[in-house]
Specification:
Blueprint: E1 5-9, H1 13-25, E2 29-33, H2 36-45, E3 50-54, H3 62-71, E4 80-84, H4 89-97, E5 102-105, H5 110-124, E6 133-135, E7 138-141, E8 146-149, E9 152-154, H6 158-169, E10 174-175, H7 177-185, H8 193-208, E11 216-219, E12 223-226
Helix pairs in contact: 6-8, 7-8
The structure holds calcium ion (CA).
Calcium ion (CA) binds near residues 12, 56 and 57.
């Protein structure tokens, strides 16, 4: 099962609902925001795989949010597809100029939109990140945002996924909460260290289903370590 998460930023509840249904049918995890402010805080808290961003929003516009996300180191790699009723060629150019990865004009068919999302995801995922990582029975598939242990799918949120990816590529070393924050959330994000503990707990819980929670180790007074050694 794919656990790519799509954040839908759209002020019209009916369109949001339609998008949610279409995306869930395509097995995406859907997050919703009714305006750009709400979307921005959700993205900084836990970056989605892709943002579907309406242009015309109350308050901060979609284009302004896109500009902000593309300016920050830790959010600039999140693909953005702009949704808009605007059909003017100049608007399209403006959207792409601020860094949107694609552009879909309303009205669109859900099928077309899903195809565009998949194309953007394929295009924006660096090939080095597409190789699977494995430790014993635990396998992480970056391109599919999927984790399995002994061939069983492990259900894991997007932040826990990135946390696990970081740990699997940095084994046997102790990291302080602050270092984990910098590496997984980015150094420009102001998040309390406690947040790390919350996500570590969720990661352990997800791994515990197959008895692998012991891989995520607490090093008292220092931080965390990921290791197959006790
Ligand atoms: Ca709108």
């Amino acid at each position: 099962m794919s656990t790519s998460s799509i954040l839908v930023v759209e002020d019209e509840p009916s369109i949001r609902e339609m998008l949610k249904m279409a995306l869930e049918r395509a097995e995406f995890k859907v997050l919703e925001a009714a305006d750009a402010q709400q979307a921005q805080s959700m993205i900084f808290e836990s970056p989605p795989t892709l943002v579907l961003l309406d242009w015309m929003l109350p308050g901060m516009s979609g284009i302004e949010l896109a500009r902000r996300l593309k300016r920050e180191n830790n959010t600039q790699d999140i693909p953005i597809i702009m949704l808009t009723a605007k059909t003017e060629e100049t608007d399209k150019v403006r959207g792409l100029e601020v860094g949107a990865d694609d552009y879909v004009t309303k009205p669109f068919s859900p099928r077309e939109l899903i195809a565009r999302i998949k194309a953007v995801l394929r295009r924006t995922m660096p090939s080095s990140l597409q190789d699977s990582l494995s430790i014993n029975d635990l396998i992480l598939y970056p391109a599919e945002h999927r984790v399995t242990i002994a061939d069983e799918d492990i259900h894991i949120g997007p932040t826990e996924f990135r946390l696990l990816h970081f740990f699997m590529t940095h084994q046997d070393r102790v990291y302080s909460r602050n270092q984990v924050l910098d590496q997984v959330w980015g150094s420009n994000v102001y998040i309390e260290e406690r947040t790390v503990d919350v996500h570590i707990r969720r990661l352990r819980k997800a791994l515990s289903i197959q008895g692998c929670d012991h891989l995520v180790q607490t090093v008292r007074g220092v931080g965390y370590r990921f290791s197959i050694k006790g």
